[in-house]
Amino acid sequence: MARGKKKPPTAPEPTGTVEWLLGTCSVHVQHLMDKGGKRGYRSLFTSDESRKEFKKELYDISKLGITLRPWKARVFQLFEFEWTRREPKVMKRFSQEYLHGRAVNWTTADQEPGLPDQNNGDERGNRTYKDEATDWNRLSLRAWYREHMEWMRKHPFTNQLFLTKAEHIKEDQWRSVQQLLRDTFIFDVTATRELEITYSPFHPPEKATCVFLLSKESYKAIASKHGGERSTIEEHAKPILQNKELLYTGDMDRITSLDDFHKSSKGACMLYSIVRTGAATSCACTCIDYQMKETCDCSLAWDVKHGRIQIPEEKDIKVIGEETKRGGRRKARKGGALTFDQPRFSIPPKAPAATAPPPHPFG
């Protein structure tokens, strides 16, 4: 290759061929756009407006999602092409640092659902440790070791698990799910397909039952502009669901801009039937919430609708009403959900015939 000729963005490792990936915190990558000095990018931008738009684009790309991992190199390529024209100084450096080489794994396409694309939890854990163990004091090795061992005795990590069981789902999410099922046709206007899905960087793709449905934002846009009748929703949903499906079945070359990609990926969600053993729901989802937290309104509502999960009586809005309790937001709970075991995925087995739930595509 001739000197000075730009290499294409680094393609992700084929799924199932690696046991670990060297990740880069997406939040740190985005925050570099705000920083000055030699390490930051702020002084390289032609305007603050352009810098903010660039940072927003980084956020959108960072939430790509594991099922769209095959698109990662193409998305990086489109991003590089568009912004090289607009901010050449920025992209000359950014491409070398975060689109090529080792520091390219800063998206949710590089993680299994529920695992972070950033180290905010670690940063928070570091602060919690200093609050509780050392009280932010600089200690001698002997004094630190004594305080450290005392703190470890009170905080064993051997039994930490993902906080994604149904009993951990918060009241506001239960309320949101019930309102979606009652007030929208999101879970009635769907398209079901059998597709080969990338569900982990560490396992090869597998065949899965996939259900395409409108995102909440798309549904609201259609209902507010055209009306909320089911026939109207079905009419306007069809091309949106088809565009989402084509991301998994169509030619990548048909997407020629980041705008086209985002419209196709954000317009609809896809539920798929491969989940981590012990996950809260029987299906996973491509939405940002699920990729980050391993729970979302879509997957929970789908299981409620098809009888896989029962709404707890104390969370049922028919019983407790719909008013949100007064009071400010609760403070964030210290620490986070941890696990030292690599998540294992499985396709949920069919329910016994005698106790089979209502028809369910993921049965």
What are the main properties of this structure?
4-stranded antiparallel sheet, single chain, 6 strands, globular, 13 helices, 363 residues, alpha+beta
Task: Describe the structure in your own words.
With 363 residues, the chain is α+β, with helices and mostly antiparallel strands. Among the domains are: 85 residues; 168 residues, no CATH class. The chain is built from 13 helices and 6 strands. The strands form 2 sheets. Strands 1-2-3-5 form a 4-stranded antiparallel β-sheet. Strand 1 and strand 2 form a beta hairpin. Helix 3 runs antiparallel to helix 4, helix 8 packs antiparallel against helix 9 and helix 9 crosses helix 10. The termini are far apart. About 10% of the residues have low confidence.
Poorly predicted runs: 324-358
Strand content: 5-15%
What is the structural class?
A: alpha+beta
Biggest beta-sheet profile: 4 strands, antiparallel
Number of DSSP-assigned strands: 6
Mean pLDDT across all amino acids: 81
User: Percent of residues in helical segments?
Assistant: 40-55%
Rounded to the nearest angstrom, the radius of gyration is: 23 Å
The 3D shape can be described as globular
SSE arrangement, N to C: HHHHHHHEEHHHEEEHHHE
**Number of distinct helices:** 13
- Give the strand order of the largest sheet, numbering strands 1, 2, ... along the chain: 1-2-3-5
Q: In angstroms, what separates the terminal alpha carbons?
A: 52 Å
Region (Disordered): 109-128, 323-363
Biased composition (Pro residues): 349-363
